[in-house]
Design a protein that fits this description.
This protein is α/β, with parallel strands linked by helices and 143 residues long. It is built from 7 helices and 5 strands; from the N terminus they run βααβααβααβαβ. It has a 5-stranded parallel sheet.
């Protein structure tokens, strides 16, 4: 099972320097990507914010959000809910095992914990620190 982070989704749907690599990997791997509502919110916020922070046109932002919705409707992205009762203890364990000389952001820990709770073997993202954390927790970072 493949769990995707917002960094991958933003690159794929909005397009940035990693956009072509994201689409190439996704097309070749033909995997379904699993996400949480939190990942979707983070993705949507990043896409909407890009109009003001990165000079992306409103039209491109809307198109990216429509592509995201289409991927969910088509089933190539699957939204999976996780209760806080399961997620927070898993995140706490990850924090205890991995936070030390090297630190990780709370959202990174939450996303890796979510993936772990879903039984993901692969963690799909472009964030180096988050990839390192996922690998430390036994997942294979992609792409």
């Amino acid at each position: 099972m493949h769990f995707a982070d917002a960094s991958f989704l933003v690159s794929a749907f909005l397009g940035d320097q990693n956009g072509p690599r994201a689409w190439k990997w996704w097309a070749e791997s033909r995997v379904v990507l699993h996400v949480t509502p939190l990942v979707l919110l983070e993705t949507e916020n990043a896409i909407r914010s890009s109009v003001f922070q990165r000079g992306v046109s409103q039209r491109d932002s809307i198109e990216a959000l429509n592509l995201l919705k289409r991927a969910l409707a088509d089933g190539v992205l699957v939204r999976r809910d996780l209760t806080s009762r399961r997620m927070y203890p898993a995140a706490q364990r990850i924090c205890m095992r991995n936070t030390g000389p090297e630190t990780f952001g709370t959202m990174d820990i939450i996303h890796v914990a979510s993936a772990q709770e879903f039984g993901a073997y692969h963690f799909v993202c472009f964030d180096r620190a988050q990839s390192k954390l996922a690998a430390a927790e036994g997942m294979t970072p992609c792409p």
